[in-house]
Specification:
By secondary structure, the protein is α/β, with parallel strands linked by helices. Helices cover about 35% and strands about 15% of the residues. The radius of gyration is 17 Å and the shape is elongated.
């Protein structure tokens, strides 16, 4: 597995399609990187794809996924992971992260749902993270989610997150 990618220090913004034309022309000196959700860009070609390529050649891009459902009950969407791998290569993405949550169970739920903080969930999720990393050929970062309640808690949130990160080597 590759070493941990070096995430640029400094200030960045969330990159939206409406920003492509302006940022393709000039990137403000105060920006150190751009963050985007790869699923919002995968498959875009034409003018938007060319402009994103121009931007990615001038400023680091960080990809932060929203739809992988890394802890979800549905089978891992390996087609999405393969598409993300190609996206990372095409746009020289310096880092890829995903929420430590689930977002679908056979259909997109459009929310970042909390997982049970259990040893069983650690084992299950770490195996899925490892599979994603194997497909990507690089380590990923995981971000915790905000939540109002969790289905089950045998571990504290920090114990759960730490256990998944250590077990998955992410």
């Amino acid at each position: 597995m590759n070493t941990i990618p070096q995430i640029p220090a400094g200030a960045g913004i969330g990159f939206r399609r409406s920003m492509t034309a302006g940022l393709a022309k000039t990137i403000p000196e105060t920006l150190d990187f751009l963050e985007l959700a790869p699923e919002n860009w995968i498959g875009y070609g034409g003018r938007l794809g060319r402009q994103l390529k121009e931007v990615s050649e001038r400023i680091p891009i960080i990809a932060h996924g929203l739809s992988l459902s890394i802890g979800g009950p549905a089978p891992l969407d390996e087609k999405l992971v393969t598409d993300i791998k190609q996206f990372i290569a095409d746009y020289s993405v310096v880092s890829y992260s995903e929420h430590l949550s689930y977002t679908n169970d056979g259909g997109q739920l459009y929310d970042l749902l909390p997982m049970p903080f259990t040893e069983e969930a650690v084992t299950y999720t770490a195996a899925r993270v490892k599979r994603v990393q194997d497909i990507l050929g690089q380590r990923i970062a995981l971000e915790n989610v905000s939540y109002y309640l969790t289905p089950k808690t045998d571990l504290s949130e920090i114990e759960f997150v730490t256990a998944v990160v250590e077990a998955a080597d992410c």
